Sequence to fold (125 residues):
Amino acid sequence: MLAHDLLASVAGTLVGFVLGLVGGGGSILAVPLLVYLVGVKSPHVAIGTSAVAVALSALMNLWGHARQQHVKWRCALVFAAAGTVGAVLGSSLGKQFDGQKLLVLFGVLMVAIAAAMVFKKAVAV
Fold:
């Protein structure tokens, strides 16, 4: 196994673990790990690559939760449909930006989300 593949395996395991453990965060880790640990040169390629990795990891996460009836299917399908539209729009816009600027935007977004999570109470549905 090449060093690159080993690093990708370690990073992928971490992303899948975090996604399975807390239900999110895998995609927040995936792009930085691909760029800074695995060595993917282009942030655009890292974003596309992470989309595949996170989607497959999320599918396995879904399977385990669905088996235990931990899924609100109507909510999930509406959320996924809206997310799909957002993903198409976001990926189209993202291709227009320099990759390094996208990484900065990504970092700012991560800090803002972390701050919102720390300082706001969760809303039960």
